[in-house]
Amino acid sequence: MKYILPLFFTLLLFGCTNNSTPKADETTTTKKEEKNIDYSTISSDNNPIPGWAKNATIYELNTRQFSKEGTFKAVESELPRLKEMGIDIIWFMPIHPISKIKRKGGIGSPYAVADYKKTNPDYGTLEDFKSLVSNIHKNGMYAIIDWVPNHTGWDNLWVTEHPEWYTQVDGKITDPLNEDGKSIGWTDVADLNYDNADMRAAMIDAMSFWVKECDIDGFRCDVAGSVPVDFWKNAISTLDNIKTMFMLAEAEEPPLHEAGFDVYYGWKFHHLMNDLAKGKKNAVDLDRYRWDREHSFLQGVYPMMFTSNHDENSWNGTVFERMGAGHKTFAVLAATFEGTPLLYNGMESAMKKRLEFFEKDAIKWGNYEYTDFYKRLFDLKHRNPALWNGRNGGEFEVVKNSFDLKIYSFLRKKGEDKVLVVVNLSDKDQRVFISESDLSGFWKDIFADNEKEKTFKDNRGIFSLKPWEYKVYERINKSVDYKK
Prior knowledge:
CATH class of the largest domain: Alpha Beta
Distance between the termini: 39 Å
Number of domains: 2
CATH topology of the largest domain: TIM Barrel
CATH architecture of the largest domain: Alpha-Beta Barrel
Strand content: 15-25%
């Protein structure tokens, strides 16, 4: 959840604490010590990641805005379309009743949860949601729900029945505060106190409810870095005993993966792409990002890569506003770099609209003009092990080129499976020469139906690229039918 960008990062960095009722320590390792840890030498083997996530793609679905009806039932008819496009995991934004007290806008934020064990009546009943999850599974996909552990709405039953479960200042429950004890602006929610063991137990019980009752496959955890790491260790261990969970943290903090999170938000990569689009960074900065990622996160965990999501769309602008003519170029990077790609609902119809956050604002779908673009990327991710996630995927090799400030070229490779990506990160025509990599064999541009198979003589190639143009070549194994 993020209403204003600077406030989001304030919370992400410092958590919701105040001098009267501090939350439990997040970890026994100090922040200074964490920065000095080389996580590339530490394994994530203790974290059970579902096998089906090895080449998964994610689709974020805002039930309120996904259709005019804004219901679970209305989602069901779209499942075959999403499956055909190459979606594996459907992430539902919070499906719970929305608090009425202190709500923002006309119908409030879905992140102001009024009851952790109920569905929003505007979306449908618990039975409706069970049916939806069942149909997702029948379509060969998986369902995760957004979980809001840091705070609740003001009319959540916990507020009146268990006020001691909340952070208090001068005996009064408070909304989330920054390190100086000042409100960060999330006045529609009440901050939870993780010093209270009973509250922790109730939170884990509520999460377990959705796994047992609806057979969901995991959680996307809102502002996960503001909740103590030792809570997550307990919660994830408990949930995995019911069913191996897919756990996505809205955070980019390595200790969370030691607690059991499988996937983290690729915020750094996302903001780097925004800066590349504006000309504030250049292609060399992608290498700097990769070095930092390799040494900051456990082996085996991986980022979720995105050009947009609900926060970015509503508060910072559509991909057309932030990335301009390069928006597809960055979608290619998000789908081929190390990580699992996310598609926000509406983007397959080239949505040029910021969806309202506190009001009903249904997506105008149009003709799904970008469906084929995403389908080609996601099909490649599914069939080619070089692009798979974590340890299942291939090595990343930077391919040298003659203009490495504006052109980025790289190979993903696992055995004989290889993918070559060359992107123009500028608004100018570029002609570039690449060499010094193993480019033997036959290659096919996944976006060029009529182009003949390509070979690179002496492992060299010359590319003429239009502004923001991208090339994605797959090394062809003649024994595989790549039309499937």
